[in-house]
UniProtKB/TrEMBL annotation:
The keyword Lyase applies. Its main location: membrane. Pfam families: Guanylate_cyc (PF00211), HNOBA (PF07701). Its EC number is 4.6.1.2. It is found in: Membrane. This is guanylate cyclase. Belongs to the adenylyl cyclase class-4/guanylyl cyclase family. PANTHER family: GUANYLATE CYCLASE, GUANYLYL CYCLASE. InterPro entries: A/G_cyclase (IPR001054), A/G_cyclase_CS (IPR018297), Cyclic_nucleotide_synthase (IPR050401), HNOB_dom_associated (IPR011645), Kinase-like_dom_sf (IPR011009), Nucleotide_cyclase (IPR029787).
């Protein structure tokens, strides 16, 4: 109102530069308030303006109170320039509040989407720690089962396909696998090319059920591949190799940009080698996994393959 009345900047009646003015405003008392001559505007307007400068916020007039006072002064007359200005200020304040609420809602929605994406990329327990800016400490798991699978003849399929067709093929296959693992107590660790890695017992500890959950999932995946067809090569009958091993492992988050939940230990290496030396369309399990399966249930049929040399390990 002081700017409107005097047609000048705030505190124009003082000969202060901006730094001096800010210093005096910050270090009150004494209070610094604009000074408007009595003949610069109607007395009532100046009184309302000064009342809005009260030090105690509860003594200041609200927009609606100011609007009412101006109406009284104008005896109900409309189209007064000050009244129009007050109405515009009131409308702007209301619109600004609506805009802030709208932007806050949009920000909340985007934050929710980001959290959901992070929950899909990392285990929920780890994702929550990251969102809380807490440090992720590596964990050691004494009992878990690791699953690896890859596609037999993938190089041949890739050679007969365009890069886009390879991407579409892997996306179709892994989407099928992802739907299957939703029905089991397992966690998809990652995909590397045509390799698919899953853990059971990590990060969620489920007792001795991890071997059974991984085995049931492997049977479902093997069954699904018998009916799966490559869209651009429908005549190909897809076959995969599967390796499963049980033991201990260490899990942790690696990296800050695009963080990855990684597993480390001989259990992971052994499961990978079991898959590499496996037979197409067969599930290759280690003696440790076999022992856990026979301990927990009798519903699995296992056939001894023979002695297989895996570097320093001998797997039956």
């Amino acid at each position: 109102m002081q700017e409107v009345i005097l047609r000048d900047e705030p505190y124009c009646m003082y000969n202060y530069n901006p730094e001096e003015l800010l210093e005096k405003l910050q270090n009150a008392p004494p209070l610094i308030r604009p000074s408007v001559l009595a003949d610069a505007a109607p007395t009532e307007i100046i009184q309302i303006m000064k009342q809005c400068w009260q030090e105690q916020p509860d003594l200041r007039l609200s927009f609606s109170a100011i609007h009412g006072e101006i109406k009284k002064m104008n005896q109900g007359k409309k189209h007064n320039i000050v009244e129009s200005m007050m109405k515009q200020l009131e409308d702007y304040s209301s619109h600004l509040a609506e805009l802030v609420n709208e932007r806050t809602a949009e920000l909340g929605e985007e934050k929710k989407k980001t959290e959901q994406l992070l929950m899909r990329m990392l285990p929920p327990s780890v994702a929550k720690l990251l969102m809380a800016n807490q440090k992720i400490v590596p964990e050691s798991f004494d009992n878990c089962t690791i699953y690896f699978s890859d596609i037999c003849g993938f190089t041949t399929i890739a050679h007969a396909s365009t890069p886009m067709q390879v991407v579409d093929f892997l996306n179709d296959l892994y989407t099928c696998f992802d739907a299957i693992i939703e029905n089991h107590d397992v966690y998809k660790v990652e995909t590397i090319g045509d390799a698919y890695m899953v853990s059971s017992g990590i990060p969620k500890v489920i007792g001795d059920r991890h071997a059974e959950e991984a085995a049931l999932m492997a049977l479902d995946i093997m069954s699904a591949t018998t009916t799966f067809r490559v869209r651009h090569l429908p005549e190909i009958h897809l076959r995969i190799r599967i390796g499963i091993h049980s033991g201990s492992a260490v899990a942790g988050v690696v990296g800050l940009t695009m963080p990855r939940y990684c597993l480390f230990g001989d259990t992971i290496n052994t499961a990978s080698r079991l898959e590499t030396t496996g037979v197409p369309s067969r599930i290759h399990v280690s003696p440790d996994t076999k022992q856990l399966l026979e301990k927990s249930t009798k519903k699995f049929i296992l056939q001894k393959r023979g002695v297989i040399e895996l570097k320093v390990h001998t797997i039956f």
